[in-house]
Design brief:
The complex is a heterotrimer. Chain A folds into 2 domains: 54 residues; 218 residues, MetI-like (MetI-like fold, Orthogonal Bundle). In chain A, 71% of the residues lie in helices and 0% in strands. Chain A is globular and about 70 Å long. By secondary structure, chain B is mostly helical. Chain B has one domain: Orthogonal Bundle (MetI-like fold), CATH 1.10.3720. Chain B is built from 15 helices and no strands. The longest helix of chain B has 35 residues. Chain B is flat, with a radius of gyration of 24 Å. Chain C has 2 domains: 172 residues, Periplasmic binding protein-like II (D-Maltodextrin-Binding Protein, domain 2), CATH 3.40.190.10; 231 residues, Periplasmic binding protein-like II (D-Maltodextrin-Binding Protein, domain 2, 3-Layer(aba) Sandwich), CATH 3.40.190. In chain C, the strands form 5 sheets. Chain C has a 5-stranded mixed beta sheet with strand order 2-1-3-13-6. Chain C has a 5-stranded mixed beta sheet with strand order 8-11-7-12-16. In chain C, α3 runs antiparallel to α15, α14 packs across α15 and α18 runs antiparallel to α19. The longest helix of chain C has 27 residues. The chains are: A mainly alpha, B mainly alpha, C alpha/beta. At the A-B interface, α1, α4, α5, α6 and α8 of A face α2, α4, α5, α6 and α7 of B.
Chain lengths: 297, 307, 522
């Protein structure tokens, strides 16, 4: 570090470090609990320095706990990659025209997008639409298309970004050079938008990775379960068994195989792991995008 | 209309309209067509008759949202929490975004960015376990370690509603600030560096730069994000208000919102009409609020209005 | 601005119109446009004409037979379901002329998934219903009226079910579901940690009724002996104990109860119910003595994992435990504190119905009947294929097959959650149960105290507004008071006042009206 250290820089780093610690500590707690022996967890509660360690929870889950975790991983990765690419394409194509201040009827289209954030018809009509017209029940399309493919919020963010950071003169100049709109978008706008595109790609990817709602509504065949569906089902079953007893008839010989606290924690870690692995790599591109888009801009 | 006179303009913009077609089709299929389901708010939904043949019931699906003290309290809770979330959330996110931009070392910056997003990645169910690990009566970190060290009696967090407005706000901020500050940060790095250089040459202080350049450039994003949150002011994050307090009964006065109320009330009844009515009310009220807010923005600063 | 508004409105109008046209269109044209997934369905339409086929002597081609889809719940994954289905279908194809396709849904997600399936067009035929208000479901047009099918041959069901149980599933005289054949009565009891009891040298006499004072002394001794444990933990989650001897006519909350096993004929507020108040006062004392888990309002751990882990001494619960019915070594003793009794809704907690939108209602009912009455099918459904998944032990009981454990089994429903099946008694006795378990359970039910309102199930439709408000108040206080974690007297007062303000009187009056009508009918 060749630059001189001012008090301002120190404060900045102090605040950021504090915030980072606050963010990481609970996550550490989860990871450690997932490696804590079950009885220790029960007797001593959550601790950063457990008496006994154990990998039982992981062997239980990876051994299946009745579910195919590896397959679920592949489903998740496939859906996330395909979904993110499609989604970024659609979002950019939609946001760019909206950002053009000279586009006739621009505000009406903007309203058309925004309106979807306020009103939704509810689950039942959406379900009927997707299952009866498009027959997506128990297909991979079910994980891909409903709700997640294009989010009005991201369209608006992208539009705001285009209209605030890309100079109109640049677009005008490109057009006078004879570039078609697609060329302008590809050659002029897109390179300048890398920070926003990578940010949104990450958010969208995260949305796909973390989604379990589509799987819950549109998938009953476990072959199509993503990792989140598997994890969600495990957690939901625990909750069901721990809250619904009052309405259930019980019998003496029920053996209920409840995932315990340790297992719930390792479930969380397993779901998070790929993101934690992918994110730093993604960050590289994010930072690169920032350098190109930000410094030159 | 103008367009008839300027046919050439249409031709010029045709490629732009074509670009929007996939998005428009998707929104039609995914959002607008199911929106016809809003009529269910005025019907008694019958599964065998379907959406269109089900009998009309007027406004009776709505009455339960407005009868008694409970209803008043949940509406108040929902709005108050959202207002606090919007104000504090925005301030915190912008502060962090600006600080992040000040960090010059790329590697350090990368680490910060990675770490502050972690809470956003953790599912709310797991967050509820974390909160429990801190607040549990006899094994929690706060009671067991902090309060003991201070020589105070332990507090029964899950039966004392008075602490929960603060707890829930903290949890919300913790979980969301990383995400929001990344969005602001993406805008900040798009700001033309020459502005800052010019300002520095003019002798502007750090604060002046933040105030006159960064915040001015962030204004459109702030306005957009705030307008969007205002539109959802009658909604609440179900997980935050249901899972995090562990569905503890005694906390309900502080933790009950429209969504959790509707969930509890209709859990067993499976009443599609009444849940549609709640959704309809949330949307319409949000629409009215955001429409007025947008009008206001339109008056002051036309460019930044949403529509 | 005005011009813009007009444009917006015009645009919205156009969109709504398109939307409605498209949606109504798709509703109508659905039969023709079935995609790949539904091919089997259209085959079903051609094949059956809605009639139950007589078995052909020719070999039946199973691919051509209509498919009856059944949804039920599970806590595990049964990888070999297809193989088991194939075996079941060999029998069904011959007897009914249809084949069965089972969808196992996770327990926690079951209700939502089934409610969605029911909106579909023939997406599901037979559904397991768990703790749903039948009157509401029937009123919503979700379920098929089974009365006429049932009346053709009631005896095959009556062989397994008491007529009063079947009548519980009637709404306005029409039958909408068949109760599961399972236990119909529960006792209130305490699960006490076996290791600790043995260690303390206390004899667990499970033939007597324990008094609360005796339990108190027991817990006290346990807490004194093992200072690190919880004395009493909740029945489930933050629910301390659902109910004792008051009947609520089957709604999941206790807004309006009838005392004394529902025999008084008078609906009162739960805040005036002697048994509830008495129990709560006792628990408050226990709580202050430190006998009860201090965290019980935010608990997510099940007693069934805390007791074996040695973290808790005991928990209150309700369940069916006929004496000597279990041969398995469990980790706890069951100390009865209240003899078993059948609540008003005992037969509608778990039942099976048919979707109103079923494409093949006749065949669906025929299949459902086989699922109740055909012993071979019941065994296949419970334990899977003999030799592959289970074997018959020397004592004539079902046990996992050679080399198969509950963890690696491809099909273990009967051993781990048999209670989701239509008939849980028309099967081999499980190796964990005593000889003649089915008969033991039946006589246990027969000797149970019967609710005065058995079969009367509350329908909240007329008072939904007040009812929903009351449910929210109920959630706030009912379990908190019962667990002793809040001051009994003052919280009871608040509970009472808020219930009144939420319109409890209206709900109670409605419940009373329905009860009176039911009793008069009887």
């Amino acid at each position: 570090m060749s630059k001189k250290i001012t008090p301002g820089v120190v404060v900045t780093h102090l605040v950021m470090i504090t915030l980072c610690v606050i963010c990481v500590i609970p996550f550490l707690l989860i990871v450690i609990s997932s490696f804590t022996e079950e009885s220790t967890l029960m007797m001593n509660g959550y601790s950063f320095f457990p008496e006994k360690w154990s990998t039982y929870a992981y062997t239980y889950i990876l051994g299946g706990g009745g579910h195919n975790v590896i397959h679920g991983y592949f489903v998740s990765i496939g859906v996330t990659v395909v979904g993110t690419i499609l989604s970024i394409l659609m979002t950019t194509l939609f946001a760019y025209p909206l950002s053009r201040k000279d586009l006739p009827l621009r505000n009406i289209f903007a309203f058309f997008v925004f309106f979807t954030m306020l009103f939704n018809g509810g689950l039942v009509p959406s379900y009927m639409m997707w299952t009866r017209v498009f027959h997506i029940k128990n297909t991979y399309a079910a994980l891909l298309f409903p709700t997640l493919l294009m989010n009005a919020f991201y369209v608006i963010m992208m539009r705001t970004y285009f209209s605030t950071t890309i100079p109109e003169e640049l677009i005008e100049a490109a057009r006078l050079d004879g570039g078609s709109e697609i060329t302008i978008l590809r050659k002029v706008v897109a390179p300048l938008s890398k920070p926003m595109v990578s940010t949104l790609a990450f958010m969208i990817g995260l949305g796909y990775w973390n989604d379990w709602m589509n799987g819950l509504y549109y998938v009953t065949d476990t072959t199509y379960f993503s990792i989140q569906n598997i994890l969600n089902r495990m957690l939901q079953d625990v909750q069901f068994l721990s809250t619904a007893a009052a309405t259930q008839a019980s019998m003496g010989n029920i053996v209920s195989n409840l995932p315990t606290t340790g297992i719930r924690m390792s479930v969380a870690v397993i779901g998070l792991l790929p993101i934690m692995i992918v994110y730093p790599f993604f960050q590289k591109y994010l930072v690169k995008g920032i350098m190109i888009g930000g410094v030159k801009g | 209309m103008k367009t008839r006179k300027k046919k050439i303009r249409w031709k010029r913009y045709l490629p732009l309209y074509l670009m929007m077609i996939p998005g428009i089709l998707y929104l039609l299929v995914n959002n607008y067509m199911p929106m016809s389901g809003l009529i269910l708010a005025f019907k008694r939904f019958n599964y065998s008759l379907g959406m269109w043949q089900s009998p009309w019931v007027g406004l009776s699906n709505f009455t339960y949202l407005f009868t008694g003290n409970e209803a008043l309290q949940i509406i108040r809770n929902t709005i108050c929490y959202n207002l606090v979330f919007i104000v504090l959330g925005t301030i915190l996110a912008i502060t962090v975004a600006i600080l992040l931009n000040d960090v010059k070392n790329i590697k350090t910056k990368k680490i910060y960015q990675t770490l502050i997003l972690i809470p956003y990645l953790i599912s709310i169910v797991i967050v509820s376990y974390i909160v429990f690990a801190f607040l549990s009566q006899d094994s929690g970190f706060v009671n067991n370690t902090l309060l003991k060290a201070l020589g105070r009696d332990s507090i029964s967090w899950y039966t004392s509603p008075k602490y929960w407005p603060v707890i829930l706000t903290l949890v919300y901020l913790w979980k969301s600030f990383g995400y929001n500050s990344i969005i602001y940060y993406a805008t900040i790095i798009g700001i033309d560096e020459t502005y800052f250089e010019a300002a520095r040459i003019d002798g502007a202080t750090r604060w002046q730069q933040v105030w006159y350049i960064t915040l001015q450039c962030l204004k459109p994003t702030i306005i957009t994000l705030t307008l969007l949150s205002i539109g959802r002011i009658f909604y609440s994050d179900f997980g935050l208000f249901y899972q995090v307090p562990m569905d503890s009964g005694p906390l309900l006065n502080a933790t009950n919102t429209i969504d959790t109320y509707v969930y509890r009330a209709l859990l067993t009844l499976n009443d599609v009409g009444r849940s549609s009515a709640a959704g309809f009310m949330q949307s319409v009220m949000g629409f009215i609020v955001v429409f007025s807010a947008n009008l206001l923005v339109n008056k002051i600063d036309k460019d930044n209005a949403l529509f | 601005m005005k011009l813009r508004m007009k444009k917006v409105i015009a645009l919205l109008g156009a969109m709504t119109l398109t939307a409605s046209l498209l949606l109504s269109g798709c509703g109508g044209s659905d039969n023709g446009t079935a995609g790949n997934a539904e091919n089997t369905d259209s085959a079903a339409n051609n094949g059956s004409d809605g009639q139950v086929k007589e078995a052909d002597d020719n070999t039946v081609n199973m691919d051509d037979l209509p498919v009856i889809k059944m949804a039920t719940m599970t806590g595990a994954n049964y990888d070999d379901t297809d193989a088991v289905e194939a075996e079941i279908n060999k029998i069904l194809a011959e007897k009914v002329g249809a084949v069965l396709d089972i969808t196992w849904s996770g327990m926690g997600t079951y209700k939502q998934q089934v409610n969605l399936m029911l909106t579909g067009d023939g997406e599901v035929d037979i559904v397991m219903l768990s703790g749903v208000p039948l009157a509401t479901y029937a009123g919503n047009g979700m379920l098929l009226d089974l009365t006429d099918y049932y009346d053709q041959d009631p005896d095959s069901f009556l062989e397994w079910l008491d007529v009063s149980y079947i009548d519980s599933c009637r709404v306005n005289g029409r039958l909408y579901a068949i109760p599961e054949v399972i236990n119909f009565s529960n006792e209130i009891l305490v699960h006490a940690n076996k290791a600790m009891m043995d260690d303390m040298g206390i004899e667990a006499d499970d033939s007597k009724i324990w008094t609360m004072d005796e339990i108190h002394d027991l817990v006290k001794q346990a807490v004194d002996t093992y200072p690190d444990i919880y004395g009493v933990v909740p029945q489930s989650g933050s629910q301390f104990l659902a109910q004792i001897n008051y009947d609520n006519l089957g709604d999941t909350s206790f807004v309006g109860v009838i005392e004394d096993h529902g025999t008084t004929g008078k609906v009162i507020s739960v805040t005036e119910c002697e048994e509830y108040i008495e129990f709560s006062r006792t628990m408050r004392k226990w709580y202050q003595e430190g006998l009860i888990m201090q965290d019980c309002m935010s608990n997510t751990e099940a007693w069934s994992s805390m007791i074996p882990a040695g973290k808790a001494f005991c928990a209150f619960d309700a369940g069916a435990y006929p004496d000597n019915a279990s041969t398995e070594d469990t980790t706890y003793y069951n100390l009865t504190i209240h003899p078993n009794w059948s609540a008003a809704n005992c037969a509608v907690r778990l039942d099976y119905g048919i979707a109103a939108n079923s494409k093949n209602p006749d065949l669906a009912f025929a299949v459902l009947k086989e699922l109740y009455t055909n012993t071979d099918i019941c065994n296949l459904l419970a334990y899977g294929i003999e030799g592959t998944h289970y074997q018959i032990t020397d004592e004539g009981k079902a046990a996992p097959a050679e080399g198969i454990t509950l963890e690696n089994s491809g099909y273990s429903c009967g051993f781990i959650n048999v209670w989701v099946l239509p008939n849980t008694l028309n099967i081999h006795t499980s190796y964990t149960s005593a000889d003649g378990f089915a008969d033991l359970l039946r006589s246990y039910d027969a000797n149970a105290i019967k609710s005065g309102a058995l079969g009367c199930v509350f329908d909240s439709t007329n008072v939904t507004n007040e009812y929903t408000a009351c449910v929210n108040v109920f959630e706030k206080y009912y379990y908190a008071i019962m667990s002793g974690s809040m001051d009994t007297e003052s919280t009871l007062e608040t509970f009472k006042a808020e219930l009144k303000a939420a319109g409890e009187d209206v709900v109670i009056a409605e419940k009373q009206t329905q009860l009176d009508a039911f009793l008069a009918d009887k």
